[in-house]
Design a protein that fits this description.
The protein has about 500 residues and is of the alpha/beta class. It has three domains: about 110 residues, Nucleotidyltransferase, domain 5 (2-Layer Sandwich); about 220 residues, Rossmann fold (3-Layer(aba) Sandwich); about 90 residues. Helix 6 crosses helix 7.
Length: about 500
């Protein structure tokens, strides 16, 4: 199979589209740093996009600080909102959603509440454009969702919020079974001192976390383990590993379709972090909490097979910007949907539940239209709900939109990418044959997607890479293709 035929299957130029994309980037080449925004409309049958509006803004208009300081409050400038709405009104041809592409590097612009301030005027979804990655069909339905919550020891809101989210899950889609993993104080509020909680969710006991963690360490389970940083002790296992071991250990034979993390944010210099108690089964003051990086979160989500990943922070959390930045960074680099949820603006968690079940289970036609959320969605995931199809990612000059150079820019890409695309194609027949999936299958899908994304990034660099790197990439692509064949064989088996 040639790379041209693979690309044609991925993108059909005969379909009509009238996509609107708002491009926003940080221009550091100017005498004074500035933020540039431009609104594009793509014609029905391909061709060059038409610029509908262009504007320049000082970083301070967004609430950004000079230098590298962490901003406290961010906003969309009023004149940007008015100009975009006016430009769209001048071209009222039917369109379903506005896409937002933040062009790296864009600093803290990912934490700006674009959806909150623009969707109130658009009356349509606003979706963020991730780096373009091949997206496979889900091989089957996973009717479970994980809710991971770490609240302050004196928090009174967490239990009520969890029950509300769990109830909305089951109302939106009755087959969904929520699994709750919460700190011990929240667990006690959920169970009322009983060993098990009644209600619409399975609530796991955090006092089991330490023993599950010790057992996995004793068995040498490699899952979630990464190389220790320089200077770490020989028994280093990672700062928040007990949570990951507990969640994976309790789920055991199950996987989940969606996972939501709700915890406070923090910064290590410029790096955003999610903060949790070192032991979910013990009441620990915030000063002794440990951190999870974006890579830690992705590793855990992939390990339990979650297709949809979402993050949020407690109401009035002073470091909510850190959680927004984590969700933004993860969303841009994942091939599956990634959400941020503003708990203060969605206190009953209805918008979060509807968005997650819609994206994870594919049973609802809706897309997020609530300003409390932002969503990174590969365009293929939105085709059932939108009238437009996406522009050809191989058109010259589209690097800003796709996050990579055209595949035809190098012979290396043309050799590697057919295998990458083939490896990304799961066969969805399993959905019609069985109600549930074996635990290993969704996590294997996430592994293939992650490695395919790395190869896409490496293979789409203009020019040719070294022979050694080419050989490694070809070997990895072939290995992914063979792994895909094995999983597809399992899907077709009895």
């Amino acid at each position: 199979m040639t790379w041209e035929s693979v690309l044609k299957r991925w993108w059909d130029p005969e379909k009509h589209f009238r996509v609107r994309v708002l491009r926003v980037g940080l221009n550091l080449a100017a005498r004074e740093p500035r933020i540039e925004a431009e609104l594009f409309m793509y014609p029905r049958r391909g061709g060059k996009p038409r610029s509908l509006w262009h504007g320049r803004f000082a970083p301070q208009e967004f609430g950004l600080l000079e230098g590298t300081g962490i901003p406290r409050e961010l906003q969309v400038p009023g004149r940007l909102t008015e100009d975009v709405i006016d430009a769209l009104a001048r071209h009222p041809i039917n369109w379903s959603a506005l896409w937002l592409r933040l062009v790296p590097p864009y600093g803290h612009l990912g934490a700006v509440p674009w959806e909150q301030q623009l969707m109130e005027r658009l009356d349509r979804p606003l979706l963020r454009v991730p780096d373009r990655l091949p997206v496979a069909a889900e091989p089957g339905m996973v009717p479970r969702a994980a809710i991971v919550v770490n609240a302050e020891p004196d928090a009174t809101w967490a239990a009520e919020w969890i029950w509300s989210l769990a109830r909305w899950y089951t109302r939106v889609h009755p087959e969904v079974v929520p699994h709750v993993f919460a700190d011990v104080t929240t667990y006690e509020a959920l169970t009322g001192g009983r060993d098990e909680a009644g209600g619409p969710a399975i609530v796991h006991n955090p006092r089991r976390a330490a023993s599950i963690h010790r057992e996995r360490v004793a068995r040498g389970v490699p899952q979630f383990r990464r190389p220790a940083p320089a200077g770490a002790p020989s028994n280093y296992v990672g700062p928040a590993l007990m949570w990951a071991d507990w969640i994976a250990g309790e789920l055991a034979e199950w996987s989940v379709g969606a996972v939501h993390f709700l915890a406070s944010g923090a910064f290590d210099g410029e790096r955003p972090l999610l903060m949790v108690s070192p032991d979910p089964g013990a009441s620990v003051e915030r000063a002794s909490w440990v951190w999870m990086t974006g890579d830690d979160i992705k590793l855990l989500a992939d390990g339990i097979g979650a297709s949809v990943l979402s993050l949020g922070s407690p109401p009035h959390d002073s470091s909510d910007i850190a959680i927004r930045l984590l969700a933004d960074s993860l969303g841009r680099r994942r091939s599956r949907p990634t959400l941020y949820s503003d708990t203060w603006r969605d206190p009953g968690a209805w918008a979060l539940a509807e968005a997650q079940t819609s994206l994870a289970l594919g049973r609802l036609p809706s897309l997020p239209e609530d300003g409390s959320l932002f969503a990174y969605v590969q365009p293929e995931h939105a085709t059932a709900a939108l009238r437009e199809t996406w522009p050809d990612p191989e058109q010259p000059g589209h690097e800003w939109l796709t996050g990579r150079a055209p595949i035809g820019a190098s012979t290396t890409s043309q050799e590697i990418l057919p295998s990458v695309f083939e490896a990304s194609q799961a066969r969805p027949r399993f959905r019609r044959q069985e109600r549930d999936l074996p635990s290993w299958l969704p996590s294997t899908e996430r592994f293939i997607e992650s490695k395919a994304a790395q190869l896409m990034e490496a293979a789409a660099v203009p020019g040719e890479t070294s022979e050694l790197k080419q050989a490694y990439d070809r070997g990895m692509a072939q290995a992914l293709e063979e792994l895909r064949a094995l999983t597809n064989h399992r899907l077709e088996g009895p």
